Amino acid sequence: MNGYERINAALNGLKPDKTPVMLHNFMMAAHEHGITMAQYRNDPQLIAECFIASVDKYRYDGILIDIDTVTLAGAVGVPVDFPENDPARTHRGNLDNLENVLRLKPAKVENYKYIQIWLEAVRLLKAYYKDEIYIRGNCDQAPFSLASMMRGAQNWMLDLVMGTDEQLETILEYCTDASSQFIKLMAQTGCDMVSNGDSPAGPEMISPDMYLKFALPYEKRMAEVAHQAGVAYALHICGNTDSILDDMLLTAADAFELDYKTDIAKIYNTLGTTTTFIGNIDPSGVLALGTTEAVQKKTIELLSAYRNSSRFILNAGCALPPTTPAANLKMMIDTARNFRM
User: Fold this and answer.
1) Dihedral of the CA atoms 204, 87, 126, 52 (nearest 10)?
2) Are the C-beta atoms of residues 168 and 207 closer than 8 Å to each other?
């Protein structure tokens, strides 16, 4: 099997010849290629070259193309900082008063420079690898997360308690439209999978009841948009998601990329043979800062927990730090390749 075939098998519950590996390594790929994040984010050809060099070096199966976690926010007017050596970031929202949500003009995310750079990078990689390597075009924030960036995290938490139903529904619908636009544009690149992050919707930020009311319905719609566009859909939520895993299944996502804080036994018992799990080695404590022995141990623990299910794709639990040692990443991948399923 090639990389595309391995990951496609895992998404369909079929046994691959080896454990498939998909990396969330955009910062590390840029760092190893010797370019700054500013150079990376501004040149789709450089983005493609970074991932091609990384696949050549580590021989993994699936590329997750990411630029940062604020591109979609920037496309709807949230102020963005662009550091030379770090991913872009936001410090405040662009909607000072929730009442103003009723006067928002429809978003047109395709007009944003960095959306187009992202899309072109995915097109280049899909054209280069065709059906040899699996291509996942990340699409930044799910609606709940995007709303949090538009209002600012602290304001958004207060809004959930003090805002009117009309205001909350309006901003979430606005963000649903923006997120949907990005997914539809990404699907047109020819990628195999799209994905969203919705970390502010996790239990470390809001209650499970709030998740059910304000995040889950919109995550479900993102999966529907992706499926209507003919691509698979993955959802990422950081932190410990133990208390909402059962509810997350209602999104009908094809895969969940989960943090190392979520209990692996809970993940297996909940997702098991129905939904593919992507993850979830600790990217900082183990892969970036741990020894090769620690990486091997944690990888074997994870692979052993999923020994009886084909719906598994090995990855870190979140984005790899740029200075992750190559030896640690190679150990994780080599351990997976040599593990008897």
Assistant:
1) -120
2) no
Question: What is the Cα–Cα distance from 57 to 47, expressed in whole angstroms?
Answer: 16
Q: 258 by DSSP, 3-state: which?
A: strand
Pull the structure tokens for residue 170.
């309006």
Q: Is the pTM of this model over 0.90?
A: yes
Residue 229: name the closest of 180, 175, 278, 179 by CA: 180
Distance between CA atoms of residues 258 and 276, nearest Å: 11
What are the b/e assignments for 191-214, b being 16+ CB within 10 Å? Answer: bbbbbbbbbbbbbebbeeebbeeb
Q: Mind listing the pLDDT tens digit for each residue in 67-113? A: 999 999 999 999 999 999 999 999 999 999 999 998 898 999 999 99
Q: Name the strands in the sheet holding 312-316, side by side, starting at the edge strand that comes first in the sequence.
A: 22-23, 62-65, 134-141, 193-197, 232-237, 255-258, 276-281, 312-316
If one counts the domains in the chain, the total is: 1
In angstroms and rounded to an integer, the radius of gyration of the C-alpha atoms of the chain is 19
Domain that holds residue 333: 3-338
- Please report, to the nearest 10 degrees, the dihedral formed by the alpha carbons of residues 158, 159, 165, 171 taken in order: -160
Sign of the four-CA dihedral 137, 190, 115, 103: negative
CATH number of the domain at 145, please.
3.20.20.210
Q: How many whole angstroms separate alpha carbon 53 and alpha carbon 67?
A: 17
User: pLDDT tens for residues 297-315?
Assistant: 999 999 999 999 999 999 9
